[in-house]
Amino acid sequence: MSMRSQADRIIIFDTTLRDGEQSPGATLNVEEKLAIAHQLSLLGVDVIEAGFAAASPGDFQAVKTIAEQVGIVGGPVICSLARAVRQDIQAAAEALKGAARPRIHTMISTSDIHLQYQLKKSRSEVLAIAAEMVAYAKSFVDDVEFSPMDASRTEPEFLYQVLSQAIASGATTINIPDTVGYCTPKEIGNLIQGIRQNVPNIDQVILSIHTQNDLGLATANALAAIEQGVRQVECTINGIGERAGNAALEEIVMALQVRKHYFHPYFDRSVDADAPLTNIKTQEIYKTSTLVSRLTGMLIQPNKAIVGANAFAHESGIHQDGVIKHRQTYEIMEAASIGLPENRIVLGKHSGRNAFRTKLKELGFELSEEDLNKAFNRFKEVADKKKEMSDWDIEAIVRDETQIQVESGFQIEHVQVICGDCTCPTATITIVTPEGKIITNASVGTGPVDAVYQAINQLVQIPNQLIEFSVQSVTGGIDALGTVTVRLAYQDRIFSGQASDTDIVVAAAYAHINAINRLYCHLQTHKSLTSV
Ligand code: KIV
């Protein structure tokens, strides 16, 4: 029987750049999306949902650039989301032209609550639109995915009808979204079972699942769907996404790897089969996770499964004792399996450029000569203050120095702060403007960070509101590097910035200017778009 839904492994459909970017404040520019897409390709995802081409000119450009530069022969399938309307499908098809393997993902709501209050359409109208728009998408590309939005709250008989029509019209993947994260694992299992039993042509397509995390059940629901024959999972790095986010790619992949003996029988494999259940190179997980966190400004909670800072840390004496005696007493997977660097002391202030270059290679960074020089200079500066440089410190420096900069943004020249219990916190900041002018300002604040922000804001003259400020220590120890992440609000948009330094007030100044530069870039693009 040629059951496409019975493919013998899981297809990983990554939607970090589409659903993930719908996280409030996670807005990414085209260069940042491209950097993530390249990393997703290295990670080995099968499909990259690169965006929603019709949503904005920026989204269109991002899908187009990723299609051309990442969707090469031998690379992943590149997909664009499109509502079931002609203009969306045309925009998706146009943006995907450069991809070796393009996919259009079209969707329409099918639940009564969405039909009545949002679409204001009858079931028969939705049925006709779904069939017509799948066929329309098929006129551009062979690979068409169809999603009945809010599928898990759709009346089952109507859902079966819509799916059957979509397949008859040319869909090659049928995706079942639990759009509002409402279902329990058992209910998701029953839903998939019902679809497989009642949609006569379901075996002609790949069956997919898209789970949201509103009740914290996204990963469990996706795994329950896999047990019932789903063979594509839609997920995001770090589980980011609309509201409480999506199923986390790293959780799905590591569950399938660590518990492969449990899952093998669902794939008609012998329990101790060798071949992995996904094509993901798990050693790239940690790097991908930190890249996404840094570029989106979405911090990872320390207790987050797989990629959280505490995921491999053992605090209790009993656990530490057990791990020292035999690692598997308390560890079900090795940190190295997700590419987590060991916190080894490696370099110091006497280390030369060659040792630094070799270390970067070991950590998986391939830098241009220019970026290498920038990172090396910064390394020397930090090594002067900090005796021992761990792999984590080096990673933080490289991330800072190679972060995608706005071509001609503001640059910090100098930060000086005076504070204490009997002093009015005062910051003096010198910056270079995009036009190359050097300007200085001093300001007081409620604390040193506030003083820095006031001084910078008065210099750049771009209104913004600081809505989030956080500091994380890169390693332990009194001389640790601190990474500051800030999120700024401007009208209805949020912009993030990140920077690391041994002095957290200095890191705060750089993080703030990085966020300001993203906002500045947005304003410049907007200005040039509205003046066209
Ligand atoms: O949550 C949802 O329903 C979606 C679909 C477009 C798959 O994101």
How helical, in percent, are the residues?
25-40%
Distance between the termini: 56 Å
Strand residues, percent: 15-25%
CATH architecture of the largest domain: Alpha-Beta Barrel
In quaternary terms, these chains amount to single chain
Query: Tell me, what's the shape?
Result: globular
Got a strand count?
16
Quickly give the structural class.
alpha/beta
- List low-pLDDT spans: 1-6
Write out the strand line-up for the largest beta sheet, numbering strands in chain order: 1-2-3-4-5-6-7-8
Note the main sheet.
Answer: 8 strands, parallel, barrel
Predict the CATH topology of the largest domain: TIM Barrel
What is the CATH top level name of the largest domain? Alpha Beta
Supply the CATH superfamily name of the largest domain: Aldolase class I
What would you report as the Rg, rounded to the nearest angstrom?
25 Å
Please give a handful of descriptors for the protein shown.
alpha/beta; about 525 residues; eight-stranded parallel beta barrel; three-stranded antiparallel beta sheet; 3 domains; disordered N terminus; TIM Barrel; binds 3-methyl-2-oxobutanoic acid; Double Stranded RNA Binding Domain
